[in-house]
From TrEMBL:
Record's keyword annotation contains Transmembrane: yes
Gene Ontology terms: cellular component: membrane
Keywords from the named record: Membrane, Transmembrane, Transmembrane helix, Transport
Transmembrane domains' residue ranges: 14-34, 54-73, 85-104, 110-131, 143-166, 172-192, 224-248, 260-279, 291-308, 314-332, 353-376, 388-406
Originating organism: Arenimonas caeni
Family matches, as InterPro entries: MFS (IPR011701), MFS_dom (IPR020846), MFS_trans_sf (IPR036259), Tet-R_TetA/multi-R_MdtG-like (IPR001958)
Intracellular or extracellular location(s): Membrane
Protein name per Swiss-Prot or TrEMBL: Tetracycline resistance MFS efflux pump
Pfam families: MFS_1
Length: 410
């Protein structure tokens, strides 16, 4: 390998490391505040649990609504001005947002800050576009898998850290989150090169940058529209974990917080292992299309086993099967990025992120209502796992859709 090629490889490697780190740090920043935000809301609303719960739901909806609007805009901006400035502005915006939340003592200021975080955190989509820019198509599944590993590590470790920091002071996790995002901005300023050269950029157009315009772009590519549907169903099914698992485990198995915590930790570790170590190997062996189908089958079976599990031991036995589902997401991303030009990668990721935001808005209500019906009617046996049966159905439909739309190459 000659010197210029070796230098290019080093720059590319440093860039990929930064993208991994920026996703990890952003996820950790959000994870840190998960256990303390409800308590902070309880404090600023006067100490009533009912009021805090209501506002927590409104905060979550507002956050996802802002992502629905902002992700296509950021994607289109990154297609016009490059990935680097969008990622750096997002990191700086998150640092400012968490700083405001650390100082906020009133509900309106906290709500405004949460809306700001929903808009600025859309850098996750731009990070995916960056990966598509600098990674050959045959290696994208592994690269997207490593980003998934960053998500897994961040959400496995950071809530525990947030709980520890929150025990010292409710505002401390927000200070730490702001510091992490500011440090990430400084790191990226010196390390991150631009991945999209000027000759491959596309003009910015508000008609295409809004959420509906970005979805119209998907409609122009029948396979891409179908694969976006697969991604949506997978994202929707995944929400069964954060929205119902704690209460489901209590109702079905009588588990307390300690057992739930250990179980979620093991789920996170398994996901990290699959996305960080298995995705690339499976994709190289079977190809992206078959990897998606393998993951969908494993996910549907795993969720069905969760739903039917009569005891906690049976639930644990299903965890390795369900963990294999994690190969489907990166492979789906790889298939989608191979179906658009370099000039449309940002808009593609913005459209996907916007769809996933819709899942984030609809999923909590869908799954919590199914569990509420089970508890209200004191349902026992396999049907007590109605929320997991619903997730299994979503993954199965996603697998069938993937099989149908990828039967022929474009």
């Amino acid at each position: 390998m000659d010197a210029p090629a070796a230098g290019t490889m080093r720059v590319r490697r440093a860039a990929l490391v930064f993208i991994f780190v920026t996703v990890l740090v952003d996820v950790m920043a959000f994870g840190l505040i998960i256990p303390v935000l409800p308590h902070l809301l309880k404090k600023v609303t006067g100490g009533e649990i009912a009021d805090a719960t209501l506002w927590h739901g409104l905060f979550a909806t507002g956050f996802m609504a802002m992502q629905f609007i902002a992700q296509p805009v950021q994607g289109a901006l990154s297609d016009r001005f490059g990935r680097r400035p969008v990622i750096l502005v997002s990191n700086a915006g998150l640092a400012i947002d968490f700083l405001i939340m650390a100082l906020a003592e009133t509900l309106p200021l906290l709500f405004i800050a949460r809306l700001l975080s929903g808009a600025t955190s859309a850098s996750f989509s731009t990070a995916n576009a960056y990966i598509a820019d600098v990674t050959p198509p045959e290696k994208r599944s592994a690269a997207f898998g490593r980003l998934g590993m960053a998500f897994g590590i961040g959400f496995t470790v950071s809530p525990v850290m947030g709980a520890w920091l929150g025990a010292v002071d409710l505002h401390l996790p927000f200070w730490v989150a702001a510091g992490l995002c500011a440090a990430n901005f400084c790191y990226g300023w010196f390390v991150l090169p631009e991945s999209l050269p000027p000759e491959r950029r596309a003009p910015f157009d508000w008609r295409r940058a809004n959420p509906l315009g970005s979805l119209r772009m998907l409609r122009r590519h029948p396979e891409l529209f179908g694969l976006a549907g697969v991604s949506f169903l997978m994202s929707l099914a995944h929400l069964v974990y954060p929205t119902t698992f704690v209460l489901y485990a209590d109702y079905r198995f009588g588990w307390g917080l300690e057992m739930v915590g250990w179980t979620l930790l093991i789920v996170g570790v398994m996901t990290v292992i699959v996305q960080g170590g298995l995705v690339g190997r499976v994709a190289r062996t079977f190809g992206d299309r078959r990897t998606v189908l393998i993951g969908a089958v494993a996910g549907a079976i795993g969720f069905a086993m969760y739903a039917a599990a009569p005891t906690g031991y049976w639930f644990w036995a299903a965890m390795p099967v369900a963990a294999l589902w994690a190969v489907a997401g990166p492979a789906t991303q790889s298939l989608m990025t191979s179906r658009v030009s370099a000039q449309e990668q940002g808009r593609l990721q913005g459209a996907i992120g916007s769809l996933n935001s819709v899942a984030g808005i609809a999923g909590p209500t869908l799954f919590t209502q199914s569990l509420a019906w089970v508890a209200a009617n004191e349902v026992r046996g396999p049907m007590a796992g109605a929320s997991f049966w619903l997730a299994a159905l979503m993954v199965a439909i996603g697998g069938l859709l993937a099989w149908r739309v990828t039967r022929t190459r474009p």
